[in-house]
Amino acid sequence: MDLPRNPTRAVKVGSVIIGDGNPIVVQSMCATHTQDTTATSAQANALHEAGAGIVRIAVDNRKDAAALAIIRSETDANLSVDLQENYRMAALVAPLVQKIRYNPGHLYHHEREKPWQDKVRYLVDIAGQHDCAIRVGVNAGSVDPDKKDQFPAEDSISPMLASAMEHCEYLDRLGFTRYVVSLKDSDPAKVIEANRRFAAQRPDIPLHLGVTEAGLPPQGIIKTRIAFEQLISQGIGDTIRVSLTLPNDRKPEEISAGNEILADIAAGRVRSVVTYDLDHLNIISCPSCSRVENEAFIELAEEVREMTRYARDFPATIAVMGCRVNGPGETDDADLGLWCGPRAVTLKKGTETLGRYGYDEILPRLKEELDRLMADQTPPA
Length: 381
Ligand code: SF4
Hints:
This protein is of the alpha/beta class and about 375 residues long. About 35% of the residues lie in helices and about 20% in strands.
């Protein structure tokens, strides 16, 4: 596909090269439970067969790492692993994968007394020993708290950029240049701005593009397309993920959606004149991953969309998240948020927790809060 790219460094991830003018790598992430090795190997293979250049898997503990060893033996996909707080898991997983993703905002929660630089140095040593690339994955919902404090609360982009730049400088100083960066938000406009600003400062570093929690298709694809059109047609972005809330058997649609967007951009079939209207009701939902604790989450996301149709002209954001790992933080910026636990769903209004409800109780409670929000913001006649 002939899409002129920024002159980025080449970053080898197994059999693919990200950056340096190579074709944009389309990737995805397994949403199955990592310890269900049969399902996860099958999904990794389905994504690989659909054309995923890299397949990411979440590893949160030793049992996940043991499962990863089995999955590794059952797939030829280039694997990337998503580390949460426990950065030391890298030593167990690096021999099995081609790329390690860490989130600078998560490095703070584990071994708090240890400087983040020591943790990054540990990751770099492990990556170097095992021929792995690294992704510095910055997310608006989990930005390094120190950086957040340095900027006004309404500016969510500058803390993300400051965090990414700090890590890039440190990695460069360590002499480790085999890394890519991602700056994700659920708002396509913020993804565009963050990545444009980053690319202007560091055009040499390959960018992994994505709109996080884009949600259900087709809206999730539309939001992602809008961000990608603006960035990719300007040479920004060397690898992409379309994060969609989909049942497991449809996960390869993330790859076909990515390929379609790239083909359309290359052919000049861009639609960005249709601006995604965030002045209307905006439902965001995570793409789900192995951390989902109740499969009912996907169905719930669909039910939320159906139930809220009556409020489609109301300018508010409702976030539906699949787990208690990232759900609590990633719902903070939404007007109303739901995050799903094994048996209950927590309902939030901004950062305030309103309560926990059964899966069969949550929709009427959400409607009640939405109605209240609408009544509060409707000007008197
Ligand atoms: S919110 Fe939880 S379940 Fe959803 S993608 Fe993020 S980590 Fe996975």
